[in-house]
Amino acid sequence: xxxxxxxxxxxxxxxxxxxxxxxGFTQLFxxxxxxxxxxxxxxYSLLLAFLIGAxxxxxxxENVRSTYTYFFARPQDALTSSWILVRDSYLALFxxxxxxxxxxxxFQAGTAEFGDLLRPISETLLNATPLIFTGLAVGLAFRxxxxxxxxxxxxxxxxxxxxxxxxxxxxxxxxxxxLAIVAGALAGAAFGAIPGVLKATTGAHEVISSIMxxxxxxxxxxxxxxxGFFHSETKSELVTKPVDESATLPTLLGWLGAGxxxxxxxxxxxxxxxxxxxxxxxxxxxxxxxAVGFNAHASATAGMHVGRTYAxxxxxxxxxxxxxxxxxxxxxxSSGVTTNTALEYGFDGITVALLGRARPxxxxxxxxxxxxxKAGALSAQPxxxxxISTLLQAIIVLFIAAPALVKAILHLRTPRGGMVTLEAKGx
Length: 427
Hints:
With about 425 residues, this protein is mostly helical.
């Protein structure tokens, strides 16, 4: 009598011994490109802004627009003229901000100096320097949940503080220049502390108070320039006295050419960015700023003084904006400050902080981009409309502030953890 022996079932492979293949670099990079993460949203915002800018350039040019009236008869005329217009406009921006190709040819031929090649970069860095300070001023407040829209007024007071020390004291340069810079920072800090103290003591919203203070600062500037203390002794127009040579910011590349205007304020700005990063990431005060910005009620429950944090953060932010004013009055405005010297650097700092995601490194990069756009637009006159720079900045910020819009337009995937947005909690 024989019995059938049951065949044991085949052993299943252990999942741990044969794990699924790991995705390669190409696959991971491809996934990253189609995600609505903060980096790709920023990159796509820049690309979409330049694309929309190209369309608006075409629409605003009468000669190119006329070629579209017979588009179906000769489409190549419209397409060619559109391409030439966009190419030449953006090339003019590039040459005004980075490198002029005609100057490069002349340098290779021996008819131009090396300093001539650096002039576009110098102008970009010069325009970016105040934006680094004001971007840091707005970004630091963002991290505390505050919307510092008053950087323009803080810049103006910093400009006046540095200017007053710059022409009224007779000191050696090694003392005079640092003292003037510190005076600008302190004046901006004092003015910036006002909305912080008001919010801490009365609950007044910092947006309302700071934007009102911007107007106060501007009209105070107009009045101050007309006083005997500030007004120039040799000019009849509304301009201040020049600062002493001992308080003037030295140029960084002046030994290469007289037209290279970028000065020591750039180094101070980069140092301020590094210090702000350290402050937020490594210091107890920075931890309080981030904690209050994340959840003010929980921070108060944990024993943190929220009102004091608001006031000190706004004062520190005002000091950063005041450094921007010092950079202007001791640099490009060292021969005398007018009501137009401050321009719109304080308001542009808001766009820089948004594009930089309120991170010091991102703010520096955004300031360099906007400085390049400003320098390129000014250099490309009259071939390129001067408003193209402002237009591109506005479109970039629009997409940065609305990442869901970029995600919807390009059909991007939602990253793990969701899309990161930058908010001021009190707004």
